[in-house]
Automatic annotation (TrEMBL):
Domain Response regulatory: 647-764
Modified sites of kind 4-aspartylphosphate: D698
Protein name: histidine kinase
Location in the cell: Membrane
Amino acid sequence: MRDSHGATAVFSHVFAGLFESLPFLRPPGRRVSRPLAHRFAFVSATLSVLLVIVVGAELHRMASDSLLAQHRGNVRANATLVARQTEELLTAVVRTMEDLADNDAIAAAIARGTVRKTDLVPFLRSFDRVAGVPVSLVYTDATITAIADNRMGGVTARDMAWLAAAAGSGRPVATVVEDDGRPFLLGAEMLVHSATLSQQGALLYKLPLNALVLHPQAHLRHAGSAPAEPAAGWFGTDIPLQLPDRLAALGLTIRLDAPKAPEPAQAGIGLSAYALVGLAALVLIVVGCRTAGNHLTRSLRDLEQLAGAVLRDGCSGQRATVRSDDEVGRLARAFNMMLDQIDRIQRDRNRLAEDEIAVQRALVRDAEQARAEAEAARAEAQRACQAAVKALDTAQRASQAKTDFLAAASHDLRQPVQSLVLLTGSLRARLADHPAEALVGKLETSVQALCRMLEALLDISKLDASAVPVDLRPVPLHHVLDDLEDEYRLRAAEQGLELRVVPSSLTVRTDPALLERVLRNLLENALRYTDRGRILVGCRRRGDRLLIQVHDTGIGIPPEHLERIFLEFYQIANPARDRGKGLGLGLAIVHRLAVLLECRVQVASVPGRGSCFTIAIPLDMDSGRSAPGAEDGGGGDQDGRQPARPVALAVDDDPLVREGLSLLLAQLGWTVLAAATAADAFDRLASAPDQPALVIADHRLDGGVTGLEVLRAVEARLSRPALSVILTGDTAPDLIAAIAAGGYRVLHKPLAVRDLKALLDEALGVPA
C-alpha cells in the first residue's frame, strides 16, 4: 500500500507541474509560484516522452533487422580472417620443417654415422616453438631409429610406428592423430643427401591443432572429425583452409560459433534510435523555451563577464546587477557579497604585509646590533643572544599571526563561496538541456577557479595545523603513474606539449593519495611554465629509495631563486599577481607533503632550458606480499520495491547557504529538514515521519551556539545513529582537534557538489 501511495504522489506531482507550466491548461486567475526552470523541465519532459513513444518503437524495429544481417556477415568475415591466420601458421610450420629437413650437413653426418646427439639437441631446442606454436621434433636415421629430439616429450611409440610405415614412400606426408582426446598434426619430412640423392633418415614433427587457432570461439576440424551442432541460440560458420598439397588431403576446416542475435547489438540499436528521437525532442524544446531563455541569458551573461573581469583584474569595486528575485537574482546578490568580502580581505592582507615588512626590518636591525655587541665583549654577546631569542619569538608570533589570518580569512570567504557553489549546482540541474546551460558552465568554471584558490589556502592551513592524516603502506607505483598519465595527456596535447610517463614495476612505501597530489602539483607547475617541447616523468633506483623525476623544457628557474621557490606566495614570473598563474602555493604544499611522506624534494634548473624536480621515496622491501583484494559490495532492494527517500537534517543560520544546500539535497533525491537554530531543528525532527540518516550543522550559529552542541543534542533525540558532520570555514588547529575528539566528521567550505554526493553515499552505506 505504501508503494502505491508513493507512486500516486509522484504522478500527481508531475501532472500538477504540467498544468502549471502550460498556460492553456492552467485555471483562470491562478498565479504560478514555481520557478521558471521547473516549468521548462516539465514541458521538456512531456515533449521528449511523446516523441520517444511515437518514433522510438518503429526505429528500433527497422534497425534490429538491418543489424541482424550485418551481424551474420561480420561473423563470417571473422571466420574467414581466422582461417587465413591459421593457413599462415600452418604454412610457416611446414616451410620451417622443409628447411630443417633440407640440411646437407645433417644428412651427410647421419649417412657417415658421425652425428652426435649432444650436437643436435641444442639445435632442435631452438625450435621448440614455430610461429608461436609448440612443436615436438625427432631426427631419425635411415632405419627410422630416433637420433635426437627437442625434448618436448610429445612423440609416442605409435607415432614412430606411423613414421616407419610412411618413410617408405620417400616423400613428405602428414596425418591427424588424437592423444588423450586432443587432435594433433603429425608430419614427416625425408632427409635426402644432395650428393647421393639417397634417403638418409627422416624428420618427424608433431603439434596440437588447437594451438593454430587464435580465436576463442573457433576450433579446427579435420576430415575425420565428428559433426558438431551449435548450441541453442547459436549458429556455426565453416571456412575450409587452402593449404599445400601434403596437407590438403586432411580436409582442415575452421568452425566459428556465434550467437544468432547478441543482446549488446540490440541494445546498441535501441540506443541509436532513442538518441535520434532525443535529438528531435531537444530541437522542439529549444524552440519552445527560447523566448523565456533569453531573459535568463542576459543575467547570466552579465555574471560571466563580471567573473572574468574579477579573475583578470582583481576586485576593484565591481557589482553585479540584480534584475529579479529568482535563483539568478539570489546568485547575483551572493556574488556581490563575495566581492565585498574579497575586497575587505585584500585590504587586510596589504596591511598585514606592511606590518610584516616592518617587523622584518626591525629584526635585521636587532641582528646587526647583536653582532656588533658580540664583537665588543662576551657580556655584550650574551645580551645579543638574548635579543636574538626575543627576535625569533617575535618572528614566530608573526608567522602564527599570518597562519591565523589565513584561517580567519578562509572562514569568512568560504561562507559566501559555499552559497555560490550550491546555488550554481542547483541552477545547472534546473537548466539541464537549456540554451543557458553553457553560460552556467562558464560560471561554474569561474567559481571553480575561485574554489581552487581557497582550497590552496585551506591546504596550507591544514598542513601547518598537522591536520592531514598519513597512511603509509606499500603502493605499486604504476597505479599512480598510469592515473596521472591518463589525466594529463590530453591537457598537454592541447598546449602543444608531449607528455611521456615511463612505467615502473617497483613498489614504494607511501600514502598513495598524498603522493599523487605531490606529483599532480609538479605536473601543474610544469604545464604552467612550459610553452613548447615536452614533459617527462621517470624513475631511478638509488639504494633503498626510488627517485621520481619530473623534467620539463620550460623557462627554467634562475639560481638565485632556487632556495625560495618552496616558500608560500613566492612566484618568480608573476609580478602582477595574475590569478590565472595561481597563488604561488603549489610548491609550498609539495614541500610540506614531502615532509609528511618522509621524502626529500630537490630541484635542478637551467634558465631557458627547463627544470627537473626529484622526489626520493623509500622503497618497500616486502613488496612481494600481495595486498588483500577489496570485497565486492552490493546495494539496493532485491524485491524491486522503490526505496523511501532518505532524510537529511541541515542546520545553518545563513539563509543563502541553507537554501542552496536544501535545493541541492532535494535534487539528489533526499528529503530535507532545514533549520536555522537548534530549536528549529528539534521542531523539524518532531514533525518528521522518519529519522534522518545525515545531520549537517554549521559550526558557528547565532546566539553563540556551536555545531558540536547541536549534534550532541540531536543524537540524544535519535533512536538510531546518523552520520554527523560539522560544516565550517574555520581551519584553526584547536577546532579541528576538538571535532575529531568528539568522533564527528569535519568538512570545510566551500563544499563541492561531488563531495556532497560522496557524503550522501557514505550516509547510505554505498561503497565508494
